[in-house]
Design a protein that fits this description.
By secondary structure, this protein is an all-alpha fold. About 80% of the residues lie in helices and about 0% in strands. The two termini are about 20 Å apart. It is globular and about 60 Å long. Helix 2 packs antiparallel against helix 12.
């Protein structure tokens, strides 16, 4: 067991050294990926404005005018809040606005009770919580020249815990969809183990990196919306899944950047 632990620690040290040049870029890439689904949604609403209005009015019962205001508010909220999130300004307000969009769109489009939609969006919310945690930790380090604010420190613990748990829910939807093949079983086993390690905070950063790699490959192979030209509606759904998965990848990258927090096995091990 000691030999395995030593090999594991040596491997982590090597990977840490190799990844050091990329560390300054990770937060920016993570935030951009996290809000990519909201940016894409804004562009899609504007590009399909008449179709969106028709759907809300004909199928969801929105009165004329209300549908226009609803779509416009969605576009403005997603655009402004995404820009604020990327630039790390008013992060908590930006996350609140994006969360409100998720909830309102779920009810407006009648998708709130769709299990796949529900789990995916909970994972996106997990990514948004990681963004809040990053903001709290940055504020704790900068205010008062290193003297921590206890309120921010306490909040970041719970936010990181909630973010870790919600992030892995995407994998649950993957397990229960599609047919079981040999390759899928391997992905379920490896991904499931990595998700459990992220949830409890054991080797959380490296487990998150594994999930980033798996989700990225899965996204390119399965959600290849650019290859679909025979059915525009199906193309839009696949494109939506692609950008939502990108957002969740961004959440895992934020976890790699900020760490699992105090409520984790990794943190508890430091006290022994």
């Amino acid at each position: 067991m000691d030999q395995i632990r030593n090999v594991s620690e040596q491997t982590e040290d090597v990977l840490e050294k190799m990844s050091r040049p990329l560390k300054p870029c990770i937060p920016w890439v993570a935030r951009a990926l996290l809000v990519s689904t909201f940016i894409e949604d804004s562009v899609r609403i504007l590009a399909q404005w008449q179709n969106q209005l028709y759907f809300l009015q004909a199928y969801r019962g929105f009165p004329w005018g209300v549908s226009h205001v609803f779509l416009l508010l969605n576009v403005l909220t997603m655009s402004v809040c995404s820009a604020l999130a990327i630039s790390r300004r008013y992060t908590e307000a930006a996350v609140g606005g994006l969360f409100a969009v998720i909830v309102l769109q779920g009810f407006a489009y009648g998708l709130i009770f769709d299990l796949k939609f529900f789990l995916r969006n909970l994972s996106v919310v997990g990514g948004l919580l990681m963004l809040v945690a990053e903001s709290l930790l940055a504020r704790r380090r900068s205010v008062f020249a290193g003297l921590p604010s206890m309120s921010d420190e306490d909040r970041s613990k719970y936010v990181l815990l909630g973010g870790r748990i919600l992030l892995v829910l995407l994998f649950t939807s993957f397990v229960f969809s599609g047919s079981l093949t040999a390759g899928r079983i391997v992905v379920i086993v490896v991904g499931g183990l990595s998700c459990m390690m992220v949830a409890v905070g054991f080797k959380a950063k490296w487990s998150a990196i594994v999930l980033v790699a798996m989700l990225s490959v899965f996204n390119l192979m399965v959600n290849n919306w650019w290859a679909i030209d025979y059915n525009p509606t199906h193309r839009d759904f696949v494109k939506y899944d692609f950008f939502q998965t990108l957002s969740i990848v961004g959440g895992f990258l934020l976890l790699v950047n900020v760490g699992p927090g105090s409520f984790s096995v990794d943190e508890k091990k430091k006290n022994f």
